[in-house]
Design goal:
Blueprint: H1 9-21, E1 26-29, H2 49-59, E2 65-70, E3 84-85, E4 88-89, H3 91-108, E5 112-115, H4 122-132, E6 139-146, H5 153-158, H6 179-190, E7 195-199, H7 205-214, E8 219-223, H8 225-236, H9 242-256, E9 260-263, H10 266-275
Parallel strand pairs: 1-2, 2-5, 5-6, 6-7, 7-8, 8-9
Antiparallel strand pairs: 3-4
The structure holds zinc ion.
């Protein structure tokens, strides 16, 4: 993806200094381990890349909210968001691993853990584990309405996390279904989520609006890699004015009701808005 790079645990601290200086309030970390295995074991290690990155950011005393992605797909050799049993993703076998991963992030100093796997019951499992370890103050930002979308393509290549077989239709939501998303949000909140995410954002602005109107918690809109790449590609071809279109899209996500916008445009947008 143009302008987006994988970073080492050391580099990320410098990146975060720049992010803080631009006035961006927080970052979300996704891990890319040195080795992958069927169960995503490296995601739990205190020496893992995300855990080390969090510690580095904490040591640098940056005024940034540190959010971590909690999922297995970046860490499994098959690329699915859960462990595989009998050829299928096993929901229940995945829950303890996600909970341990969230715990390791929280111990390293994460403010917020963001489970993106879409397994049933994962918010409750993570909340219980965090509470048992006296980490009540660590918040859960649940990817509650995560649609099975073609807009994730560029990220999967960048994170080397495309499923090696099958797809994620079994656990991500059907783009045509609005009511299921509302049900998922209600369930995640019942299980203890503190805030919820709608992903992707641009093709799902109606869902951001509906979630915002129905539930009284902070709502995140995730402006995903494909949405970003479209703007970049069109701008490169001289077809669109990048700054104008990117800010228009981010404004639309906020106007729809997002309290938090996650976007690859963040650094550019912060610079553009400063210059205004
Ligand atoms: Zn995943």
């Amino acid at each position: 993806m143009p302008g987006i790079h994988q970073q080492s645990a050391d580099q990320i601290v410098e990146e975060c200094r720049e992010v803080e200086a631009l006035g961006i309030p927080g970052v979300i970390l996704f891990g890319l381990p040195e080795s992958k295995d069927p169960r995503g074991a490296s995601s739990l290690s205190a020496q893992g890349v995300v855990q080390r990155a969090i510690e580095g950011i904490r040591k640098a005393h940056l005024k940034l909210l540190v959010i971590t992605d909690v999922c297995l797909c970046e860490y499994t050799d098959h690329g699915h968001c859960g462990v595989i049993e009998d050829g299928e993703v096993s929901n229940d076998a995945t829950l303890p691993i996600l909970a341990q991963q969230a715990l390791s992030h929280a111990r390293a100093g994460a403010d917020i853990v963001a489970p993106s796997d879409m397994m049933d019951g994962r918010v409750a499992a993570i909340r219980k584990t965090l509470d048992e370890h006296k980490l009540q103050d660590v918040a859960i930002f649940a990817y509650a309405a995560k649609y099975c979308s073609g807009f994730y393509g560029p990220f999967r290549e960048a994170a080397e996390s495309a499923p090696q077989f099958g797809d994620r239709r079994g656990y991500q939501m059907d783009p045509a279904n609005a009511r299921e998303a509302l049900k998922e949000v209600a369930l995640d909140l019942e299980e203890g989520a503190d805030m919820v995410m709608v992903k992707p954002a641009l093709a799902y602005l109606d869902m951001i609006r509906r979630v915002r109107e129905i539930f009284n918690v902070p709502v995140g809109g995730y402006n995903v890699s494909g949405e970003y790449a479209m703007v970049k590609a069109a701008a490169r071809n001289g077809w669109l004015d990048e700054q104008r279109v990117a800010l228009e899209i981010l404004t639309a996500i906020q106007r729809a009701g997002a309290d938090i916008v996650l976007t690859y445009h963040a650094k550019d947008a912060a610079r553009w808005l400063k210059a205004c």
